[in-house]
Design the sequence.
């Protein structure tokens, strides 16, 4: 009888602990985002990397729940590996636990800081730090450390307090200088030895503006 | 003078070397297109390798604009070399065949004769560059289609298709000015050296030296800005993200002055020379 009681206590204890492992504010954010069935948007990509000159590019993105975001463009576009997924599907698609990191200040506003740690090896990131606006139940910033593609800091701006999807985002990431084999260099392409030695890794930023053409919600 | 120019045009298009030159240019284009078709994607992958960590790419960079840009780069060496051989040959062959003597026995002013050769050389150079541009656009766009152009000039620059086409078109135009300089120099060398082989060797040597000096940093304002070798690559400025038009106009004006001076020197030497 005592053994059975002990097992029962242990079982409920573990279940209770697991339930506590995901922050309720994050669950609320996830719940809100889960109401999006699909959306499509026209996006404007503005790449800001010191050694890359590229004009502002336009593309169309389409998202359907539980699928990767698709990008369409007639031009050549550089699509950041993280950030364009405004539904945060990649962040939530694998099981995870959260760790409370207190609060963080951004633009004189205090946000709740959490770590998201995936519990599934399939996840392509090892840890993410998210800042949640508990008033609007939205993520305003997240930093994701991927297993293969470095880390990305994504800041999201919204039109108003009720918008679920951001109107613009800024993606910051580290990027190595492009190294061109000499045979592919033009004659005017001088090698700046100092910059090659001292600034091998640079920070790149992409500003993405969204113009949503259709958003479908689950009712 | 007009008749002399017509006679020179007739002689130029009558000689087999002219058609060999056109054939050689076409063959170079075919080889560049073939090598780009077989290895172009690997080269692009290598160039974009570092960006792959942070980006996905949407769109095709192995396109007609990139191929046109690659062919445009024959302006560094291949095209001027062909022009040096053909243009100098218009005079050296006359020395060799002694037809020059026959012409000079006619009531023709020496300066008019040589000046008409220079004028035809300039017209022919324009024609060759036009031939290169037209065949490049036809071949490159029909095989590879259009798309954004990627260029590496102290950083990676991407140009939208229509912008890239305009830049390449202008580059051919300003490149023609550089080619005219080489043509005029080769004809002046022919005036001085007379013999075909010596002139070709001197012309090729001049071209090689020019290419080598173009990379040298003299750490001297005059040499680094106004030596002819620093003006011959003016067409490359068309592929700076923000085109420095003033620099292009100034360089082109100065290079044109060098060209005129070279013509003047050639005319003076030829006029004072004993042709017999």
Sequence:
């Amino acid at each position: 009888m005592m053994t059975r009681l002990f097992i029962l206590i242990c079982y409920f204890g573990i279940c209770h602990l697991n339930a506590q492992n995901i922050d309720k504010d994050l669950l609320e954010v996830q719940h809100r985002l889960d109401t999006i069935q699909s959306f499509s948007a026209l996006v404007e990509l503005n790449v800001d990397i010191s050694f890359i000159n590229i004009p502002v590019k336009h593309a169309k993105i389409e998202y359907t729940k539980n699928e990767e975001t698709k990008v369409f463009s007639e031009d050549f576009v550089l699509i950041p590996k993280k950030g364009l997924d405004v539904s945060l599907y990649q962040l939530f698609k694998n099981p995870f636990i959260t760790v409370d990191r207190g609060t963080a200040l951004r633009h004189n506003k205090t946000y709740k800081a959490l770590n998201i740690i995936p519990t599934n090896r399939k996840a392509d990131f090892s840890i993410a730090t998210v800042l949640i606006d508990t008033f609007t139940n939205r993520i305003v910033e997240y930093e994701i450390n991927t297993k293969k593609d470095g880390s990305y800091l994504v800041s999201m701006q919204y039109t108003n307090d009720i918008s679920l999807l951001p109107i613009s985002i800024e993606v910051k990431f580290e990027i190595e200088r492009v190294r061109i084999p000499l045979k592919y260099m033009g004659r005017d392409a001088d090698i700046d030895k100092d910059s090659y030695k001292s600034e091998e890794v640079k920070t790149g930023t992409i500003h993405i503006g969204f113009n949503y053409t259709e958003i479908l919600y689950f009712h | 003078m007009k008749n002399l120019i017509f006679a020179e045009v007739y002689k130029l298009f009558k000689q087999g070397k002219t058609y060999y030159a056109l054939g050689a240019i076409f063959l170079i284009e075919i080889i560049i297109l073939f090598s780009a078709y077989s290895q172009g994607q690997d080269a692009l992958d290598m160039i974009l390798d570092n960006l792959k960590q942070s980006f996905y790419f949407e769109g095709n960079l192995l396109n007609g604009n990139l191929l046109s840009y690659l062919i445009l780069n024959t302006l560094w060496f291949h095209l001027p070399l062909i022009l040096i051989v053909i243009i100098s040959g218009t005079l050296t062959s006359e020395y060799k065949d002694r037809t020059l003597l026959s012409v000079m026995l006619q009531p023709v002013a020496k300066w008019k004769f040589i000046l008409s050769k220079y004028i035809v050389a300039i017209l022919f150079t324009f024609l060759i560059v036009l031939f290169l541009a037209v065949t490049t656009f036809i071949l490159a766009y029909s095989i590879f289609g259009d798309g954004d152009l990627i260029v590496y000039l102290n950083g990676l620059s991407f140009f939208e298709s229509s912008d890239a086409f305009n830049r390449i078109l202008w580059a051919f135009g300003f490149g023609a000015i550089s080619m005219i300089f080489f043509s005029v120099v080769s004809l002046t060398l022919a005036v001085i050296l007379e013999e075909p082989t010596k002139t070709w060797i001197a012309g090729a040597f001049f071209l090689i030296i020019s290419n080598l000096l173009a990379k040298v940093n003299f750490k001297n304002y005059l040499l680094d800005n106004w030596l002819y070798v620093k003006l011959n690559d003016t067409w490359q400025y068309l592929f700076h993200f923000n085109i420095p038009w003033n620099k292009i106009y100034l360089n082109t004006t100065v290079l044109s002055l060098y060209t005129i001076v070279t013509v003047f020197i050639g005319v003076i030497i030829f006029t004072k020379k004993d042709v017999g």
